Amino acid sequence: MSMRDPLYNDESTASIGGPETNVPKHVAIIMDGNGRWAKAHGMPRFAGHKEGVATVVKVVKTAVDYGVDALTLYTFSTENWKRPKTEVEFILKLPKEFLGVHLPELMANNVRIEAIGDMSKLPVATRRAIQYAIDRTRHNDGLQLNFALNYGSRQEMLSAMEAVFADLNTARLSLEELDEEQFSKYLYTADTTEPDLLIRTGGEKRLSNFLLWQLAYTEFWFSDILWPDFTGQDFIDALEAYGQRKRRYGGV
Ligand code: FPP
C-alpha cells in the first residue's frame, strides 16, 4: 500500500501517523541548495529562494498529513547576514509573504507557528508578521511549525549561559540544580522536544551551527536534491528511512 496519501484512512493505512508507528515526532530541516538551483536554471539566486518557499508549502502539508508533531526549518542563520544585502532583504521578506498567503490554510490545518532565534535584529515588518501568526495560531494543537530566523546555535547557547548566570543563586536556580534538563529550559527550544530526524538537502554534510545541543541523539538524513526540487515524496522517503532506524541513545 502506498503511503503517499496518509489521509486515506482505510484499514491498511489506519495506523500511519498513530502513536504505535515510527513517525518522527520532531523533524528539523536545513533547506540547502536554493542558490545552485537558481544558477542551474539561469536565474538569479532570489528565484531559488522563492521556489524554496513552494517546497516549504509542500513539506508542511506532508508533515501535517503524516502526523509529525513539530517541524523546525532553518530559514535564516546568524551567518547569513554575510550575504549580499539584496539577498538578505529578499530572504527576510519571505516569512511575511508566506504567512500572508498561507496563514488561513495553516489555521485550517491546526498548525501552530513558532519562531526561534534573535528576532530583535529582523526587519520590523517580518517580526510583526511572525508575531501575528504566533498569536493567531497559539491555541492550535496540530503541527508546531518553527521558523529558525536569525538563529545560530552558538549564539543560542551563549545567551542561555548569560541567563543561567543571571538566575544562579537566586530562587530560580542553584548550581546543584543545573543539569542538562535545566539548561535546556534556557534555550529557544525550551518548549519543544529534541529533533528525532534532521534532514539536510543540497548535498552538503554539515550542521552549519544548527541546533548543536538539541541534535545530540538525532538521526541524520542527507540528500543531494536541491531544496527547490525536494518533493513531498522525498520528505516521505526521509520519514520512512527514519522508521527503519534503531535508536540506542548510547545504549546497546
Ligand atoms: C540555503 O540555500 C537557503 C537559505 C539560506 C534560505 C532558506 C529559505 C527558504 C527555503 C525560504 C523559506 C522561507 C519561508 C519563510 C517559507 P543557499 O542559498 O545557501 O543555496 P546554495 O548553497 O545552493 O547557494
TrEMBL record:
NCBIfam families: PRK14830.1, uppS
Name of the protein described by the UniProt record: Isoprenyl transferase
One MF annotation (Gene Ontology) recorded for this entry: ditrans,polycis-polyprenyl diphosphate synthase [(2E,6E)-farnesyl diphosphate specific] activity
EC number: 2.5.1.-
Residue ranges of the region described as Disordered: 1-21
Lineage of origin: Bacteria, Bacillati, Bacillota, Bacilli, Bacillales
Residue sites binding substrate per the record: 33-37, 45, 49, 77-79, 81, 83, 200, 206-208
Organism: Salinicoccus cyprini
First-tier enzyme category under EC: transferase
